[in-house]
Amino acid sequence: MSLRIVLADDHARMRGRIREALEASDCEVCGEGATADDAVRLVVEHRPDVALLDIHMPGNGIQAARDIVRSAPDVAVVMLTQSAEDDDLFDSLRAGASGYLLKDTDPATLADKLHGVLEGEAAMPPRLVARIMDEFRAPAKRRFARRGTAAAKLSAREWEVMEMLGQGLSTDEVSKRLFLSATTVRVHVSSVLKKLRVKDRESAFRLLRGE
Question: pTM of the prediction?
Answer without folding.
Answer: 0.63
